[in-house]
Amino acid sequence: xxxxxxNLERGWRGGERQVLLTLRELRRAGxxxxxxxxxxxxxxxxxxxxxxxxxxxxGAAGLCAALLRHGRRFDILHAQTANTLxxxxxxxxxxxxxxxxTRRTAFEKGxxxxxxxxxxxxxADALVAISQAAAxxxxxxxxxxxxxxxxxxxxxxxxxxxxxxxxxxxxxGRRVLxxxxxxxREKDPCTLVRAVHELGKQRDDFVFVHLGAEGDATEPAxxxxxxxxxxERYLFAGFEAAVEDLYALMDVxxxxxxxxxxxxxxxxxxxxxxxxxxxxxxxxxESLADGRGLCCEVGDHQALARAxxxxxxxxxxxxxxIDRAYDYVVREHDPARMAERYIxxxxxxxxxxx
Length: 354
What we know:
α5 (about 110-125) links the parallel β5 and β6 (about 125-130). This protein is of the alpha/beta class. It has 2 domains: about 1-150 and about 335-350, Glycogen Phosphorylase B (Rossmann fold, 3-Layer(aba) Sandwich), CATH 3.40.50.2000; about 160-330, Rossmann fold (3-Layer(aba) Sandwich). The chain has 14 helices and 13 strands. The chain starts with a strand and ends with a helix. The chain has a 7-stranded parallel beta sheet with strand order 3-2-1-4-5-6-7, sandwiched between helices. A 6-stranded parallel beta sheet has the order 10-9-8-11-12-13, with helices on both faces. Pfam families: Glyco_transf_4, Glycos_transf_1.
């Protein structure tokens, strides 16, 4: 099969990593997979470095031009983001190719925005969601939705990166709790700051490291850290290109999201044997089920603090959580298995059109 993946995001986050993993695994399985991505973006750069065919464009006009020029060469057009689905839906009658869409969010929209979203979803020949939480809204609307979980891959940690990072933040001799999340409102960093403050009332043997790009909650989070006097305890480390290396430094991984379709940073922690504390937002509840982590109510900073303390102090609990989480992630979130599921979905779409 010939499959064109579409993702026009500017940065490098979980969705972009999934696109690159999909391209890689489709090629390994013997299929011709190409990418339509933003010119000069991190995803395009990484895909080109791996030898994938990449059509680069700038903005909506460039995307449409590239689709009109190249789209009919492919058997499947796979929108990996909502905005690329919009343009595929508008051009579908001309392109005359089946469209697959992967939903990576669990947000629910209302009003006129919801009507437009439903129209777009109905133009997809196959609708995929990365978790039960992400599938909930389209299923309530009567749309058949297949669950294909995101994947994570095991890569060796770069000891030089770890050493330099630990030295830069003076982490030696302290237990490290950390998160990898953009400073955005849906990630709720202020609740996380309050949880760290609460934990600090009980002990002083730890430091908290916040890895992630700035966003719309950057200033409130930084102000709260200053107000609570946590400048030496709560460290903003910013975006790290190879953040996967740094899990080797962590004693506990924490995620305080208010909305989360799946949370691949949690899967990274599972794979690297770091125990997880997270809220029960969206797909996080699914990931942490069956003793794979400690789950807390959204916005409950005291519960997060208690859960962090338990994982720092209870060695038996840590070991149990780590083993359960690792077994689960290598079974359910393997890149090759993810690709197999997509290939099955592609074949079903093509068969339905014959």
